Amino acid sequence: MRTKARFLCLAVVISGLLFGLTTTGLAQDKSILRIGFSWTTFIDPAVASDYSSSSAVINLYDTLVYPTPEGDVVPHAAESWEVSSDNLTYTFKLRKGIKFHDGSELTAEDVKFTMDRLLEIGEGYAYLYRGKVDSAKVVDKYTVQLVLKQPYGPFLSSLIRFYLMNEDVVMANTKPGPYGDFGDYGKEYLLSHDAGSGAYMVKEFPFEEYLLMERFPEYWGEVAPNAADEVKFLRSPDPVTIVTMMSRRELEITDAWQPEESYQTMARIEGVDIAQWENGAVYYLMLNNKRPPTDDIHFRKALSWVLDYGQIITSIFPGTTQAHGPVAHATGGYKEGLFQYTQDLDKAREELQKSKYYDQLDEMTVVFAINVDVPALEKVGLLFQANADEIGINVELVKMPWGKIVEVVADPDENPHVMPINVAPHYPEAGSMIESKYHSKTAGTWEQAEWVDSHVLDQLIDDALATVDIGERYRKYGLIQEIAVELAPTIFLFELFEKHAYQAAYVDWPQLEKPVPVMGYNNDCRFIEVFPDRIP
To answer: Which domains does the chain show, CATH number per domain?
Structure first.
């Protein structure tokens, strides 16, 4: 879509000119914001769903509504909306004059196209709408209706994940594929290009290395006066290299997965601060419910009893609190007073004896996958291995990059027995966490390597989401959380504080004062300001 310029390694220049940042191919009067992420990053709105991908599409695309720190939504690409008395038809009035990156105007036709495409492809955030949205209808150029099959209580909130696409750009870049007249629906093109109207647009994207975005000069919405001219999302290297990059001012914001000792080291660098906030995320050990021996509830409960949670929250992820279930306490619809496992070897042995695999332990190995992009997880794996050995369970640790993890979870037979993951709300309600973790339609995604397939749970989740009254909806969420804890498909580790080292001396990150409690939105880079002349 745009001519790619050669992009060389960035270097920080501290000179008498006090100019700070320069790079080959980047004019000296431009600023850049570089942020580390666990990779791989997808920028197709019908595919993106993990942390780095969600952060990317938030910058490249607009949504009808926008989330607030208070957990509400406010108008964004839609200036207003009306809801029918039966709660089935949502009519949105679009802002006039919103331009896509090719200069064309965003209209109701593009909104309809985006929903049709998302429902047809069925990946990424499509689970929020599949089975719920019946159709998208164009009323006039700036008016669109989204019609539901049944009431969907958190529908407005869910639309923060509905990223609006330029129909003409997508259709002009299709190739033969599985979607009939729509070919591949532009999926290959959108691996490395965007079709959005967001504050930033793709400049370069060597897929395995980094995503470089540049400011869109005709963006319609608010942009901070000193927002970076270019934003680079890069694949985080090893922790030692990250510390070096921060000390050399070659990175503005780290990823959220650095070891505690690295954060302590970076906190001593002049001008670097450590940011931390609650984001509603919970860290889990996902247990494969389809693969022996973790397909047995008593075996899963034995693993839940054997783990030393105190060691994790005091030494490996210090400052966190043990989770009570699949939802963080700060998320709307969290159930108070849920049962909580602690380390108890006697109870672990008792459950293990009830397992149908008790007399086969010598012949079985539990595979624990470690995401190599999150160094602290190796410590969790080693602890789990040592704890399980105390009751006669053999654990094998296998290291995988994030891209490989996403690949293997799609097959229950390839999916390891134990998979660490953190999940944050996709919209600010417990329903987001519950559906992504335990509805059968999300099985085999990075969020649900448990492979839970329960008709009863599906019905309860669907019923809760269809409940318009928020108090009643929250009560139903609570019942589902109780059942999830009893079935033990997951080991609930801790509620995660999102944590980053950043260059506080020359980066103003206003979202830190009032974070948005959903994944990725605190990386909306149009609000993050960079001041090269402040570099120490």
So the answer is: 30-58+198-272+503-536 (3.40.190.10), 62-195 (3.90.76.10), 279-496 (3.10.105.10)
Q: Among residues 50, 400, 7, which one has the least CA distance to residue 212?
A: 7
Length of the chain: 536
How many whole angstroms separate alpha carbon 510 and alpha carbon 519?
16
Determine contact, residues 193/165, Cβ cutoff 8 Å: no
Query: Quick one: CA torsion of 337, 342, 348, 351, rounded to 10 degrees?
Result: 0
Do 339 and 485 touch, CB atoms closer than 8 A? Answer: yes
What is the pLDDT at residue 28?
54
- Pair of tokens at residue 518: 């959903």
Chain centroid to Cα 374, Å, comes to: 15
List CB contacts of 262: < 8 A, sequence separation 6 or more. 239, 242, 243, 375, 501
Per residue in 75-127, pLDDT tens? Answer: 999 999 999 999 999 999 999 999 999 999 999 999 999 999 999 999 999 99
What three-state secondary structure class fits 9? coil
- Cα–Cα distance, 474 to 334 (Å, whole number): 8
What is the rounded average pLDDT of the residues 274-289? 93
Amino acid at 410: A
Interatomic CA distance for residues 432 and 125, integer angstroms: 11
Show Cβ contacts of residue 167 under 8 Å, excluding neighbours closer than 6 positions.
Answer: 109, 110, 113, 114
Distance of CA 191 to the CA centre of its chain: 18
